């Protein structure tokens, strides 16, 4: 199946029908494929496109999050991001600029990019869970659905006809594969691979829409990135749907969050942060976004009230009713009727009184007397509906018979129904019956949603625990070798493309076999566990420490030159020497030997760096142990 997709992609690419970077972005891609590209050359190239230069500079400042000084120059931004990431950013922004419209009438080009932008920002927000750098996650999320744009570009008429069918999920993927030879998810993966993005990215993109079918081991980086993209895509979709469709997507958003390891209380602030950045970047990229006054409303509001046909009439249910009327007779008559039905009624005779009743406490039913459907009435209704207490209520407006022509306008302004002030008992009962059906439905939906969120929270905690266990050595509680080497590969790639130093420290407990022979393996395990804490405590925030095997540990130190790495090693060796292992049952000193190496141009890959650090460790052992030896080069 994969080979079929690759053959089909090769055919489409040869036809020239697929989207591709243009202008300066294309030149950046071509330039960064060379081994001898200089910072000065790349900076001069990006400067020829002022919009591109501004976006790279802005993005660099956004990524460092204020942890460093403000980056004021383009050359510093490129150094900070690295050649590889500048290439990714140029690619994404170029595609947005050049494919804002097209020949497929049924494809919403700006809507597609708006959702993609939100997806990229959401992916950036959950980058830690995906075990990927935030900037790389942004590009991956931004381009995760690029296959949709590609099909609309290559087959504008045929894909437009398919979009008219309103297919989603597996049904859409199957239909695309049947008609075009590959689906948009596979095409997205092929494009990202062709543009030179890392393998883990295009593999995750191929599977992120149906992560349960992804062939990745549990706890792997690929599985984590796939789940993160799935969640990010849910956020992107949620932010671009209209309010009537948004609610139904909320439970699936929480379920996707749980797969990433996010608990329910972590979702609203994360989405809130996404919205802020989405709106900022939307202005920069001239993409439409929406205003959300309170993200909690977005994630917690029940569906808009409306007529749910087919529901049987319900007996009187407990409801909090807020009744607002200036007419004393109308107010008294309605209050008596509602009270006789067993409903809790609270009264107000003006706007201020009503707002006090609605402040911070939700009403189930809001009944408001209005004189007509004019501007003042519309404004008053919207004001009552704007607060948290009135927004979720079923709202019946009471109007005089001569104002019935304005009822439609009041309905558009937020009323759920209307009742004439000279109402009959039958008309009142019909409205109240409808209100109770909707309130009951809202309660059921709210209960179901809360159940989903509770179970999602349990699921998130379980997933987080499983991910942690999959990454952790069971004895020392450090990262295990598999995860540690994944992180090492990630830091190697960043160091290579950003031209920043990277050091490797190999650490080994001296005479550990003798400890096992003299005191037994149980004591040996205690010593190993205690030494793991000594090593871990000696590391800095950005260092990655893991159990390499047996009594050996490895520390990966990003942005660290050889002299600094050697100082780090000396501190850890000294801490080990000064640690009393008496409570573990060992009275003699327990020491460490450490070998240190820093990446050089002669290192072909990270294995070469590890070999040099290992040789330095061997030299430390040969030199008497309890010491640090540094490798001076390949």
Compact description:
The protein is of the alpha/beta class and 634 residues long. The chain has helices at residues 2-15, 23-32, 39-47, 50-64, 74-81, 83-98, 109-125, 127-130, 134-142, 146-154, 156-163, 169-180, 184-194, 199-207, 221-240, 243-246, 250-260, 267-285, 295-300, 328-340, 351-358, 375-386, 388-391, 407-412, 425-471, 481-498, 512-519, 521-538, 562-577, 606-622, and strands spanning 320-324, 344-348, 365-369, 394-399, 417-420, 502-509, 544-549, 552-558, 592-598, 628-630.
User: How many domains?
Assistant: 3
Distance between the termini: 43 Å
Give me the side-by-side strand order of the main sheet: 2-1-3-4-5
Major β-sheet annotation: 5 strands, parallel
**CATH architecture classification name of the largest domain:** Orthogonal Bundle
> CATH-wise, what's the superfamily of the largest domain?
Hypothetical protein af1432
Structural description of this entry:
The two termini are 43 Å apart. The protein has 634 residues and is α/β, with parallel strands linked by helices. Helix 10 packs across helix 13. The protein is built from 30 helices and ten strands. The chain has a five-stranded parallel β-sheet with strand order 2-1-3-4-5, with helices on both faces. Helix 20 links the parallel strand 1 and strand 2. It folds into three domains: 220 residues, Hypothetical protein af1432; 125 residues, Rossmann fold, CATH 3.40.50.2300; 150 residues, Reverse transcriptase/Diguanylate cyclase domain (Alpha-Beta Plaits).
């Amino acid at each position: 199946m994969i080979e079929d997709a690759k053959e089909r992609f090769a055919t489409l690419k040869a036809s020239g029908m697929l989207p591709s970077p243009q202008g300066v972005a294309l030149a950046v891609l071509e330039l960064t494929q060379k081994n001898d590209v200089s910072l000065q050359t790349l900076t001069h190239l990006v400067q020829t496109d002022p919009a591109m230069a501004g976006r790279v500079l802005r993005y660099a400042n956004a990524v460092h999050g204020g942890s460093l000084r403000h980056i004021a120059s383009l050359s510093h931004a490129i150094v900070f991001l690295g050649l590889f990431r500048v290439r990714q950013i140029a690619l994404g922004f170029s595609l947005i600029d050049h494919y804002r419209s097209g020949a497929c009438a049924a494809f919403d080009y700006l809507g597609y990019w708006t959702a993609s932008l939100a997806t990229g920002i959401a992916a950036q927000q959950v980058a830690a869970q995906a075990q990927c750098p935030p900037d790389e996650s942004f590009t991956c999320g931004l381009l995760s659905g690029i296959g949709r744009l590609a099909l609309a570009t290559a087959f504008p008429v045929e894909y437009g006809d398919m979009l008219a069918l309103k297919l989603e999920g597996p049904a859409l993927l199957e239909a695309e594969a049947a008609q075009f030879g590959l689906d948009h998810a596979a095409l997205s993966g092929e494009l990202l691979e062709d543009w030179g993005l890392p393998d883990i990215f295009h593999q995750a993109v191929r599977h992120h829409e149906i992560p349960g079918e992804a062939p990745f081991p549990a706890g792997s980086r690929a599985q984590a990135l796939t789940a993160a993209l799935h969640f990010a895509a849910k956020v992107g979709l949620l932010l671009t749907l209209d309010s009537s469709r948004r609610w139904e997507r909320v439970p699936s958003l929480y379920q996707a969050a749980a797969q990433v390891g996010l608990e329910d209380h972590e979702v609203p602030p994360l989405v809130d942060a996404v919205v802020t950045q989405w709106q900022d970047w939307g202005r920069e990229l001239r993409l439409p976004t929406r205003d959300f006054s309170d993200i909690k409303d977005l994630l917690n509001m029940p569906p808009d009230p409306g007529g749910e046909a087919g529901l049987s009439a319900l007996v009187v249910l407990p409801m909090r009713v807020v009744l607002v009327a200036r007419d004393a007779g109308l107010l008294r008559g309605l209050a008596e009727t509602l009270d006789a039905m067993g409903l809790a009624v609270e009264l107000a005779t003006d706007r201020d009184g009503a707002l006090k009743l609605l402040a911070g406490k939700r009403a189930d039913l809001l009944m408001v007397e209005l004189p007509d459907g004019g501007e003042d009435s519309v404004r008053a209704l919207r004001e009552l509906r704007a607060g948290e207490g009135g927004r979720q209520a079923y709202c019946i407006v009471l109007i005089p018979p001569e104002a019935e022509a304005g009822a439609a306008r009041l309905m558009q302004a937020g009323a759920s129904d209307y009742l004439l002030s000279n109402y009959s008992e039958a008309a009142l009962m019909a409205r109240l019956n409808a209100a109770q059906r909707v309130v009951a439905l809202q309660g059921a939906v709210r209960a179901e949603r809360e159940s989903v969120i509770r179970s999602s929270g349990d699921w998130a905690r379980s997933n987080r625990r499983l991910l942690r266990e999959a990454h952790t050595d069971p004895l020392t509680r450090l990262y295990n070798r598999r995860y540690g080497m994944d992180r090492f590969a990630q830091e190697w790639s960043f160091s290579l493309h950003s031209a920043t130093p990277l050091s490797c420290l190999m650490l080994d407990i001296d005479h550990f076999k003798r400890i096992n022979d003299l005191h037994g393996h149980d004591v040996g395990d205690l010593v190993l566990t205690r030494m793991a804490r000594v090593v871990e405590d000696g590391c800095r925030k950005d260092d990655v420490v893991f159990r390499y095997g047996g009594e050996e540990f490895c520390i990966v130190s990003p942005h660290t030159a050889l002299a600094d790495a050697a100082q780090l090693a000396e501190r850890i060796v000294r801490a080990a020497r000064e640690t009393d292992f008496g409570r573990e049952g060992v009275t003699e000193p327990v020491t460490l030997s450490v070998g240190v190496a820093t990446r050089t141009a002669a290192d072909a890959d990270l294995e070469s760096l590890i070999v040099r650090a290992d040789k330095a460790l061997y030299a430390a052992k040969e030199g008497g142990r309890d010491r640090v030896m540094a490798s001076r080069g390949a």
